[in-house]
Predict the 3D structure of the following.
Amino acid sequence: MKTISLDINYQEFSSIDEMDPKDQDLIREAIEAQKGSYATYSGFNVGAAVLLEDGTVVRGSNQENAAYPSGLCAERTAMFAAGANYPGKAMVSIAIVGGFDHKLSEDPCSPCGACRQVMAEYQTLSGKPLSVIMFGTKKTWKFAKVDDILPFIFDSFNEK
Ligand code: THU
């Protein structure tokens, strides 16, 4: 038996002004996307923006429903829209913002497990790292690849 440790590196920014201009732009797109959030049941509004390899940005926001499981998170709304409308184009980055009542949280808005799994699939599909930016007004985190937020990814491609 041996104990193995994982070492995950990510960047923390106290202001988005410290970030790469492309990342700043993507965060601003996610903030715009949050305006489209329909979260009448939870009151928590999330916006996401996906950057494709050719520079296209696809926005998404959480969409809730009276039949609760019928709703969808902002990240998957954005990624599925990107996959559906731009098939074959690699997703290179995703920015996420969130907060109650259309405000922005102080802490980074962290994606749920199901959204991480979908990010992993698109990253595997493209063979290029998909970076993940979690925005907060007090601090923002950037992860270089999905592996850093979903270690031991389930990947059916491994079995082939
Ligand atoms: N939500 C997202 O849009 N993304 C996440 O990663 C976590 C949660 C949404 C789902 C629901 O509409 C609301 O936030 C409260 O859970």
